[in-house]
Task: structure prediction
Amino acid sequence: MAIITLTTDMGLRDHYVAAVKGAILSQHPEATIVDISHQIAPFDNMHTAFVLRNAYPEFPRGTIHIIGVNSEADGHTPHLVVRHDGHYFIGADNGIFSLLFDTKPHEAFELTLKLDTDHRAFPTKNIFVKAACHIARGGTPEVIGRKVVSIREQLTFRPTLHSDAIKGAVIHVDGYGNVVTNITRTHFDELVKARTFRITFGRSIHDIGTIHETYSDVPPGERVAFFGASGFLEIAVNKGVAGGGGGAAQLLGIRVADPIRVELTGMARNAAVA
Result:
């Protein structure tokens, strides 16, 4: 049974998501449809990539992922089906595929499907669904597209490594108000080794000098830094919830793209700040 996932910025207020699901079931009634998210920030490739790259590896190989964000095509932005790591991804070549994977996609095909309608303003439903159902029925991308050798690259925030510091940035704030940075465990370990450090953001009174394993390592209401399931350094407030007293983003005044630094303090390890 084919699995088709949906990641869009359509929200759930209007009819758009239901129309996409109806189109899938009309063309392939046996499909299993899984919603990854419909709350992506409008037209936000970075948000889309963060959510999807952390979800798709949990699905079986052969899963088809429809990306309904920034989905309209033009002369410079074709629609693609990308085959990578045993999965299929269908979306516009707007830079999203360069953000989704750490390596170049295994194969990419520009869609050449003939549409069943002249209405091109809803490509997620009218184009991506048709391509997804073709693959779900056992079809191959080669039949519905022509192979391309490159995809559009989108620049992203990458941490800058120095001998005494890592300069990173916030790349995501989740629904709890937890702050995700672009600093990985590898970056951190290469810098810190056995030395003391501080994580700085905003005012110095918020500096953190300890990496914990989980939220509950600190009392409720206290700030905490740890490496989450995504592999990135995260800053949170234990039991803090955005909109319900405040997550880390709200309580500490942190937003996406704000700078985050890990600095060596030069002190003995037992002198680290709390």
